Amino acid sequence: MGSNDRDYMRRDSGWRGGRAAFWFGPERIVWVFIAISTILFLFPGVDRWATFTSNGLGRWELWRLISYQFVHGGLLHVGLNMVGLYFVGRTVVSTLGPTQFALIYLAGGVCGALFEWLLQSAVGRPCAIVGASASISALMFVFVTIEPRMMVRLFPFPFSFTLVRLAWGFAIINGLLGLSSLASPASAGSTAYLAHLGGALYGILHGKYFRQRITLPVIRFVRSSKRPKPAPGQTRKSTATAPYRSRPGQPNVIDAEFSKPTADYNEVLDKINREGIGSLTPAERRILERASENLGRRND
After folding, report:
1. Residue 235 DSSP SS3
2. Distance of CA 49 to the CA centre of its chain
3. What per-residue string of b and e applies to 123-154 under the rule 16 or more CB within 10 Å gives b?
4. Per-residue pLDDT at 233
5. Would you state the pLDDT for residue 84?
6. Greater model confidence, 169 or 290
């Protein structure tokens, strides 16, 4: 299959490239998670077996580490979390793909619950947690590690912040409120501020370390072997290996230069068909960009 035969390589992909890409493409996992939380909210009594509690952990009811992430305590609680999941989740899926999104969401929620439980237990206080806030914090802080200098505007402020400054503000506020809840039982409210910090911590670790280990393999490319047939009396030159170099700070990733689309290019296109463009690694994105530039020059 050539590149022009693929929907996502055409300049005008129509309805399928717009709304349908969200409903039927990799980003549909965001809707799946929103649907699970909404459905569980409509069934009263779910919190009895789904809430994460200190007693439940003591009885080794480990499923609560996952189930609590989809259960909420009220209409405002579920509404705010689902709005946050919609916007933050779509951004992470489009950048890292659905597999990474699910891993960050679930693992961040687990870390958030355990962080809250550990610190509350240290002062002799039980805890009970519901909600997706820790999971959303993990998703947000993963993206902070990817685009820390991105400018964002937060309603109702009339000016913009860098994403990293907004993240620092989030961490400081939750840290102060969390410490206040530990210091005085009277100040402990219904919000698990320490769980937010635990999710954020996992997001930072995932963005800085785990994501590279999971998604970025060692890659080496060679130039295409398809060359014009030599003229009579001439010999074909051997195919040379493309020059390559290690990326600074990421020794497990290798960049490679190439002159035109190769088999690696078609493999990248096939991966987009299977998993969506958000699943591409940085090296695979470079293959797609360089090949697209070469195709554009030939078409001109």
Report:
1. coil
2. 28
3. eeeebbbbbbbbbbbbbbbbbbbeeeeeeeee
4. 55
5. 92
6. 169
Q: Are residues 115 and 196 in the same domain?
A: yes
Q: Outline where DSSP puts E strands in 35-88.
A: 52-53
The DSSP 8-state label assigned to residue 15 in this structure reads G
The domain total for the chain is 2
* CATH number of the domain where residue 14 is located: 1.20.1540.10
- The residue with tokens 């939750």 is 174
| pLDDT over 80 (residue 117) | yes
Tokens of 270: 């096939």
Range of the domain at 126: 3-215
**Residue 14 burial class via C-beta count within 10 angstroms: exposed 0-12, middle 13-18, buried 19 and up:** exposed
Angle at the Cα of 79 from the Cα atoms of 167 and 16, rounded to 5 degrees: 85
pLDDT at 39: 95
Counting Cβ atoms within 10 Å, is residue 298 exposed (0-12), middle (13-18) or buried (19+)?
Answer: exposed
pTM over cut 0.85: no
Per-residue pLDDT band for 254 (boundaries 50, 70, 90) equals very low
3-state secondary structure of 153: strand
Question: Is the domain of 81 the same as that of 189?
Answer: yes
Q: CA-CA distance, 249 to 242, in Å (whole number)?
A: 22
Mean pLDDT throughout 6-18? Answer: 44
Quick one: tokens of 33?
A: 């998670």
DSSP code, position 278: G
